Amino acid sequence: MDKKRRSFLKKSAVGASAVAATSMFPSIWIKNSSLAYAAKGEVKVGVLFSLTGTTGIIEESLNKATIMAIEEINDSGGINGMKIVPVVEDPASDPATFAAKARKLVLNDKCVSVFGSYTSASRKAVLPVFEKRENLYWYPTLYEGRECSKNVIYTGAVPNQQQDEFVPWLVEKFGKRWYLIGSNYIYPKEENNYCKKLLEGLGCEVVAEEYVPLGHSEFASVVNKFKSLKPNVIFSTVVGDSVVALHRQYRAGGLDPETMPMASLTTSENEVAAMGGDAAAGHFTSAPYFMVWDSPENQKFVEAYRKRWGEDKVTHFVSEPSYFQVYMFKQAVEKLDPSDIAPDTIREATKGVEMVAPQGPVKIDPATLHTYLWPKIGVCKSDGQFEILQQSSEWLEPVPYKAYPNQQCTEEGLKEV
Amino acid sequence: MDPTAIMSQLITGLSIASILLLVALGLAIIYGSTGVINLAHGEFVMLGAYSAWALQTFFSLNLFQSLFFIFVLTALLGWIIERVVIRHLYARPLDTILATWGIGVISIQAIRLSAGGELRYVEMPSQLASSVSFLGVDVSAFRIFILIFSAALFILTWYLMFKTSFGVKLRAITQNPEVASSFGINSDRIFGLTFAYGAGLAGLAGALISPLKSVYPEMGTPYVIDAFFVVVLGGVESLMGTVFSAIILGELTSFISFQSNDTIAKALVLLAIVILIRFRPQGLFSSKVRG
């Protein structure tokens, strides 16, 4: 109640200042005040993915998927006749630059939404900008959960979506002794927190939990530990270039995925190409999307992507949400009267939006602004592609605080239960 | 720890040490004899790895076939860089840090622009892809190969330094450039060849580790740091010191990471180096080369 009153006061203050502005300044200034979000039959959005720096390569593919979706929408008539105009910025893989560019997109360019970020660090860096300016950020990456912002639409998976079916499946197939290994930062730790909860419920034993430095490439001792502890499953949240070194040294050490497979939430077609099919074959990944997924929507997506950006390009489980979230944005804006288009009205209109994405039908959860997704389990083949073994029987609800039962993300914000 | 685990970690330590030695040897030669702090050393390692990738992708050469070309290629590049940039800076050792760092940045961006920034794949020779039993422990055959190869390279380098006239001249220049040149030694030429040899060794190191590790433009940075640890701990001008410090660091890393994990191992090894340097600033082995 209190919050409502405050936002009412704020709105009327803005209104009052807009009136003041109209009377005090020449008309050119009005453009930036009230009706600016959908002026001249255009809707401006920001596209904030790094094109240079350490994560530049992967984020470039997210930029490409986003741009392609925008072009497709504009070519087929736009949003109620309005064109989407992308403002592309390169934050250079640096969280501080992310924040600066986000501020520019929101304040100077008056974008009504921004699509962006791959790493959690960059999302955390821009979050204050979107919360303070009441704007809307669309985040396509799978991440560690534990966030409940009213200014972010999350279209990637959270831990419960990737693990709820994956972990019991692995336990049944391979056994109860688990080795958890990850890179040393927040994402692997949160995923492992949740994994340990699931394993506890299934009566499993965690024989080791360890974290290696980011960028680590010497896994000789780790491989020895695999050999001496003989786990049934190696649950890996090692990321980036370290994934490649880990797989290659596992293979060179003579270990066998038949009896001791690595199960990963982050190994995609990209990493497999760099480690070689022989080092990747037999290991498992859980994700809502794989490039080989057989559906008319995915076929269309992959074909369009290769036609637009090059025949050798791959689509993966972060570029797919980057693509479909633009269509969700379109659906939300379509519902609005042009004069009502603003970040907060778009957010309200996004709640409950449904569409058929390349991975299957997806929906925005009104309470958490996360997305209902279709997790799949894939095994890597020696040709470097995945074979999909299983898909969940229904779309899985996103529960960003599932590892923390006393906290809950609701429409009113985070609640302690 | 049971005896097999101890044995297995000893061998793992040797394997880590052999990779460290491989990467540090080139740096030790350049730093020890010319006094140039070559911050682009990691980028020579990276260029070696990319050469292996390019020769495999465009000329279908396997790793063994390409080693010779990689050595020649990176050595030539090192020689050119010495001729064009480094030799103007021998009197200004601090400036070499900046110059070589700049060369490193240029190399990274050149690779990014030409070969692309994505991770690259270098195939492991199929004969060495399996694991073998060595002293009762299962070890990767490729790691054994690296161990033997870097030992051989070390012996070759030692022979070059102490048993050939090139080595005598190089050591003479290192001890006293003026006196050496008054005896008719062409220090310009000797330094150029030394730099080329060091760069070639780094290129070989990059090629040899590429099937075990990841190949990407920024891969050199961690290696140059490791190489400096080895050289500084071993004593800057001592070749033997380089070997022993590589073994000490390899075994320390191996045992600590087995007992706890790699993050702790990294921190503790660094701490050990800091403490050792505090009490022996000249490194474990003091110089026999420089007077």
Topology at a glance:
The complex is a heterodimer of chains A (417) and B (291).
Chain A: H1 2-24, E1 42-48, H2 56-75, E2 83-89, H3 95-108, E3 113-116, H4 120-132, E4 137-139, E5 152-154, H5 159-163, H6 166-174, E6 177-183, H7 186-201, E7 205-212, H8 220-229, E8 233-237, H9 241-252, E9 262-264, H10 269-275, H11 277-280, E10 284-287, H12 296-309, H13 319-334, H14 343-350, E11 354-357, E12 360-364, E13 371-372, E14 376-380, E15 386-391, E16 407-410, E17 413-416
Parallel strand pairs in A: 1-2, 1-3, 3-4, 4-5, 6-7, 6-8, 8-9, 9-10
Antiparallel strand pairs in A: 10-14, 11-12, 12-13, 14-15, 16-17
Helix pairs in contact in A: 2-13, 3-4, 9-10, 13-14
Chain B: H1 3-34, H2 41-59, H3 63-84, H4 93-115, E1 131-134, E2 137-140, H5 141-163, H6 165-175, H7 177-182, H8 187-209, H9 220-234, H10 239-259, H11 262-279
Antiparallel strand pairs in B: 1-2
Helix pairs in contact in B: 1-5, 1-8, 1-9, 1-10, 2-3, 2-4, 2-8, 2-9, 3-8, 5-6, 6-8, 9-10, 10-11
Summary tags:
heterodimer; A: 417 residues; alpha/beta; Rossmann fold; 2 domains; 7-stranded mixed sheet; 5-stranded parallel sheet; globular; disordered N terminus; B: 291 residues; mainly alpha; ABC transporter involved in vitamin B12 uptake, BtuC; two-stranded antiparallel ribbon; 2 strands
Quaternary = heterodimer
SSE string of chain B: HHHHEEHHHHHHH
Strand percentage of chain A lies at 15-25%
CATH superfamily of the largest domain in chain A: Response regulator
Please give the CATH architecture of chain B: Orthogonal Bundle
CATH topology (level 3) name of chain B: ABC transporter involved in vitamin B12 uptake, BtuC
Helix content percent band of chain A = 40-55%
Structural class of chain B: mainly alpha
Globally, the shape of chain B reads globular
CATH class group of the largest domain in chain A: Alpha Beta
Explain this structure to me?
The complex is a heterodimer of chains A (about 425) and B (about 290). Chain A is about 40% helix and about 20% strand. With about 425 residues, chain A is of the alpha/beta class. In chain A, the strands form 4 sheets. In chain A, strands 7-6-8-9-10-14-15 form a 7-stranded mixed sheet. In chain A, strand 12 (about 360-365) and strand 13 form a beta hairpin. The longest helix of chain A is centred in the first third of the chain and has 23 residues, at about 1-25. Chain A is globular, with a radius of gyration of 22 Å. Chain B is mainly alpha-helical. Chain B has one domain: Orthogonal Bundle (ABC transporter involved in vitamin B12 uptake, BtuC). In chain B, about 75% of the residues lie in helices and about 5% in strands. Chain B contains 11 helices and 2 strands, in the order ααααββααααααα. Chain B has a two-stranded antiparallel sheet. In chain B, strand 1 and strand 2 form a beta hairpin. In chain B, helix 1 (about 5-35) runs parallel beside helix 5. The longest helix of chain B is centred in the N-terminal third of the chain and has 32 residues, at about 5-35. Chain B is globular. The mean pLDDT of chain B is about 90. The interface of A and B includes residues 215, 228 and 276 of A.
